[in-house]
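User: Fold both of these, please.

Assistant: Here is the first one.
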Amino acid sequence: MGDVVELESSQPGGTGPKRSTIQKAQRRRGGRSKTALVLGGGGFTGGVYEIGALRALDLLSVNRTVNEFDIYVGTSAGSFVASLLAAGLTPEEMSRVVNRQVPTPFRDVDLGALLRPNYADFATRSLLMPLRLAGLARSPLFRNI
């Protein structure tokens, strides 16, 4: 973005507008505003998409890289990608790991392993269901019915 400049008043004898609100806010914060990169979730697919989008932003940006933001914020897969950026990994390095072009300390993870249902949790919750229903039937909410 460009600098905020003070415009001359169009009225004769006018002194021009007062300092803008943006300039006052910047002075209170210390002069330089901070920039944040906010990444959303989306699971495994969303994380890979974000890495690709960040790589494109990195290639298109002229004066800055995506590793130079002041604040990184993310949700779910976005938080994982944001933490890698904050640690100094570039989107190009992340895409090489995802495409298996370089050795990685992570064991090979395929899509089937990431999307496999948790059968043990299903069985545990199924066995506990009658106990939870009995506790619900004894609650004050159902006593009045």
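And the second sequence with its predicted structure:
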Amino acid sequence: MADGAQGVVVVGGGLAGAKTAEALRAEGYDGPVTLLGAEDELPYERPPLSKGYLAGEAGFDEAVVHPEEWYAEHEVELRRGTEVTALHLGENEVELADGERVPFSWLVLATGSEPRRLPVPGAETALTLRTRADSDRLRQTFGAGRRLVVVGAGWIGLEAAAAARGAGTEVTVLEASELPLLGVLGPEAGEVFAGLHREHGVDLRLGARLEAITPDGVRLADGSVVPGDAVLLGVGVSPRTSLAEAAGLAVDNGVLVDASLRTSDPRVFAVGDIASHDHPVLGHRVRVEHWNTALTQPATVAAAILGRDASYEELPYFFSDQYDLGMEYVGHATREATARVVVRGDLAGREFVAFWLDDEDRVLASMNVNVWDVVDEVRPLILARTPVDAARLADPGTPYADLGG
């Protein structure tokens, strides 16, 4: 089903972009496909950058989505080191940094996210973690006798802290909230991660207020200095929506897309970190900054471009590995929507499944910690959107299949 010489242009050379090209070919699209990536690397997955690759346990080739020859074999024009500076939607063209314009019939935005910087003096000197080069720079600061200060106890900060401790680095983590991951998981699970890192020798300082980042570490609001040979900012990311916004697409904490991931311009789609998706199952918009979304959304876009009925209905999913703790999270629970947390298993022993319930006792999300092969059993409880018996939910002897409404 070729659509002329213009074809599909994908802006963004990460996992979402590469998987969009793959999905188009897998679904039978035979028109031109051009993939424009700002980095010089082959498209790669980002989770290893704060996990196995950062820890020196995995090679970079394991993170690469496709070998270089795949693109030629599938007639995908991969242009690396290519920055897109503008979208000219009225002319069906994207503009590159050198002034070249690339025409399109369909446009897919997969521009991802960028690390946030803090509005404090010296923030520009701190390390961030988003690219392979970032991960390489951070790993070079690891080692016995070296000191790393991590600002932010979110997923990236905690995973980086675990990798640094594994290499013998002295690590201090500074977090403004009362607990790690408080905004994502709430206090019950936050305590689990606080205890985990302290047991592994991390100096975790909560309620920290930064005044400046200095060549010697971090100066706090009380005037004290946390010494460090390197400082990593792990305070979240912002979706790269400037191209979409400048082009006049609807943007509000991400590029607004419908159930099929189509933007306010019917020829333009958005996938991955930037997509604020009108989720047909959850019943509200959600923007997910995790690997699984970038991996799975492109198939819906490919189907929609081919004129098929397409709706992205997969529940958000992510995972983390820190020291001897492995976890998986499925669903979507905000602190505003969550009435309570129910735990099945041994919270203190870090072998449990936590469930986030709304005020009608409907399961919004679950997190399994060092307990495996439960995501497929739990997912139907979330999809059902019906109340459950919280006492039976907490009982390890009650099969998940018996809890459905």
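The first strand starts at residue 8 and ends at 11.
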